[in-house]
Structure formats: structure tokens, C-alpha cells
Amino acid sequence: MSAVSCHKPDRLVLALCGSEERLQIVLGEPGPNGYSVLAARQWHAPRQSLKVLVPGIKAALDGFGVTTDALAKIACVRGPGSFTGLRVVLAAAQGIAAGHDLPLAGVDYLPLLASGPASLVTGPLHVLTYARRGLVYSQSFEAPTLVETAPLMSFTLKDAAARMAELGNTATLMGSGLRKNPDFFAELAAANTGYTLLDAQWDTPSPDTLLAAGIQAVASADSMDPVYVRPTDAEDNLPQIAKKRGLDPEAAKKRLDKLRNQ
Asked: What is the Cα–Cα distance from 93 to 151, expressed in whole angstroms?
């Protein structure tokens, strides 16, 4: 966390990210040249975000002698990513926002990651983050402008490679999908010498990058829905879950479809 200053800041922006294994909290304060990072905390907290998020926000604010009353806006990454992490972050953000009548702003995760190295590379930039075993979220951009060239989708590794090939044989690849599938992407890069694989430092947005995205994101009084992209594991395994509970799998599917359409 940043060193505690002697002043008590006001009109802070709180930016949150829990899409992957690192949970991030950033506080930004206004200044003559726009917002800057006042404090930043992060934890490597897979499956523990519920335990550390709200106490972490409180501790960050306590360090400056302020409460959530000092907030002017909350921005949070809405996905895709860990279903549990996204739900915890959005629930906390919406709870604080409701209690203080604050606007919420949603940040899309893969464009956020792409904005980190975008000014340092040129040409196709493919962001690939871990979705589950053998599956990645993929979105492509043209660097440094960050114009989207292929929309956000979930793919098998083979299909992700095929879509990247359609966009040219020279590109920069980044994201946790590379880290979780090292052999596949090492072989892919060896077979495609025009591919450059960025290292793990770009797998997590920096506090400045997260804050900047939160400031730029349009805020509103509406509640925010997570961006999941792929079905949950429970949805994929619905027939097996239904059978274990003595339910008819087809009836369970119809019930789920009905609830989705409500």
C-alpha cells in the first residue's frame, strides 16, 4: 500500500479486479492532472476473495483516515474470468454503491490486459486468458490503437490457434492462457516464428492501468451483470448433477432454460 499521507482525501475512485487468481484493489484520488493512484493492494487469493476483499477495502481506506463516504465512483472488472471471483467483486461493489448512492462502472477484462503492452508493440495483439482446462478466452486487437479485430469468445486451444492464424502470421500473444498451457503455446510459437509470447508480468493489470480503465469506463446507477462468455461448470454438468439428485435431466434443463428467460 502507498505511504499514508497527512491529508484526508475525498472523492476517491475505487477500482476492483478479481477475474483471475490475483485480487486487486486500487484507490485513485483527483489532482491537477487527473486521477493518480493513492493506494494499491493485491493478493494471490484463488478461492479466497470473499475472505479478503471487504477487509482489504476497509484497511486501504483506514490507512488514510477515511471511510466509504469518501468514494465518488466504483469501477470493477466484470469479466470474463473466475465465476466466484467476479461474483464476489460485483456483489461487494454493488453493496457499497447501494449504501452510498454511488455510480458503478464496468471494465472488460481482456481489453484491460491488452492496454498494458499496447503502446510497446505493433500489429495483431491476441489476449488469451485461462477459462478452464483446455479452454481459453480470446480477444484480438490491433496495437497500438487497440481496435478490436476479433471479438471475445471462448475456444479450445486448437480453435484459438486457428482463429489467430486467420489474422496473420505475425502477432504478439499474452495472458494467463499461455501460462496454463505452456507446452501448447511453446510449440505454437516454434511453428510460427512471427509469434512473440509476452511473459507473466503482463498477465495482471498494473494499478495505474486498472485505475485508468476505471476512470474511463462509463458509470451509471444501474446494477452490473458479470461477463461470463462460457457456460458455468454446473450448467455443463447439469445432467450428471440432476441424476445424482434423483431428477430427470431433461426436466432440469427445461427448468434452467425457463429461469434464464425470466
From this structure: 27
pLDDT tens-digit series, residues 77-107: 999 999 989 999 999 999 999 999 999 999 9
In angstroms, what CA-CA distances link 9 with 24, 39, 86?
20, 11, 28
Give the chain as a 3 state SS string.
CCCCCCCCCCCEEEEEECCCCEEEEEEEEEECCEEEEEEEEEEECCCCHHHHHHHHHHHHHHCCCCCHHHEEEEEEEEECCCHHHHHHHHHHHHHHHHHHCCCEEEEEHHHHHHHCCHHHCCEEEEEEEEEECCEEEEEEEEECCCEEEEEEEEEEHHHHHHHHHHCCCCEEEECHHHHHCHHHHHHHHHHCCCEEECCHHHCCCCHHHHHHHHHHCCEECCCCCCCCCCCCHHHHCHHHHHHHCCCCHHHHHHHHHHHHHC
- What are 236's three cell numbers? 455443463
- The C-alpha cell at 51 is 475472505
CATH class given for the domain over 12-108+205-220: alpha beta
117-202 belongs to CATH 3.30.430.20: no
Q: What does pLDDT average to over the chain?
A: 89
Write the pLDDT tens digit of every residue in 6-32. 456 779 999 999 999 999 999 999 999
Examine residue 144 and say whether the peptide bond preceding it is cis (omega within 30 degrees of 0).
yes
Q: Is-contact 112 213, C-beta < 8 A?
A: yes
Query: For the CA atoms of 133, 139, 144, 147, what is the dihedral angle to 10 degrees?
Result: -170
Q: Do domains 12-108+205-220 and 117-202 have the same CATH topology?
A: yes
Residue type at 17 in one-letter notation: C
- Residue spans per domain, the chain: 12-108+205-220, 117-202
